[in-house]
Amino acid sequence: MNIISNVKLGEILEELKAQFPEHAFRSIALKDMTEEDKASMDILISHDGQIDEAFLLQCPNLKWIAWYAAGVNKLPLATIKEKNIILTNARGVHKVQISEYIFSYIMTDYKNVLEYYKLQQDKGFKTDIRHKELFEQTICFIGTGEIPSYAARIAQAFNMKVIGINTAGQDKAYFDEVYTIDERLSAFEQSDIIVNVLPETESTIDLLKHEDFQAMGSDALFINVGRGTVVKEDILIQALTDKVIRFACLDVFYNEPLEANHPLYKLDNVIMTPHITGLSTHYNQRATNIFVDNMNIGIDNKHNFKNLVDLDKGY
């Protein structure tokens, strides 16, 4: 089969060639693909957000998209389904690095890192700053998938109470309590830290309302490493401006990138990173491990593929 990677895999691609010599692997950027490349391609390895319906219509032999990202909300899922193309994603490859970022955000806030850094810049020396502890704090994860489950294990090591929220309120390992999405206000009311890790689907867009932040309370830390569309930005900005919640750490935004004059930049109770918590030096290898497992399973057994995306649900 002809396999084209839009992802720059470097030595990993050479390893794939050696591991599967019966297949032809090539590395070509999406924008550089010719009509012949598209027409002859059987498998596409990509995370290029420019893949659209028009592109897929030029790929008559495409059987499988190995998507090297978790979220598939920007892909033309209806066309992929119509053309009977297999879609797998990289769900699970982010759990280590995003979990580490979650706790780096928490520690930055709870241990007053920014305040101490400013003190250092001012050549000051103060010992009267008091810090919060994670010990016996309650952390609530909106979502109970692989990332929050991994992060929940870390939280347990800090002797935190761990609450999860999922569609059905189904119990999950490492969570002390799990609530349904409709019961989330009860979960928020008893939580010190709330972390959104939901993907973007029709049911998660604009999920969080004013009353959700009111339930979190004025001492709450809100972290978003899922998708920015979970809350309209005017609602989030108002919650921060009016001190409905105390602080926020945001890696994702409703529209990316943020414009230079975006009102979030004017707030002093928010830390922002540019949608990078999922990145890691190990990322491509972990995503390729999933691809290799599925290559060994074989397209004829696609129903046994790892990380097979449900095209109707969008995840």
From TrEMBL:
Gene3D superfamilies: NAD(P)-binding Rossmann-like Domain. The keyword Phosphoprotein does not apply. GO terms for molecular function: NAD binding; oxidoreductase activity, acting on the CH-OH group of donors, NAD or NADP as acceptor. Keywords: NAD, Oxidoreductase. Residues 104-276 form the D-isomer specific 2-hydroxyacid dehydrogenase NAD-binding domain. Pfam families: 2-Hacid_dh_C. This is D-isomer specific 2-hydroxyacid dehydrogenase NAD-binding domain-containing protein.
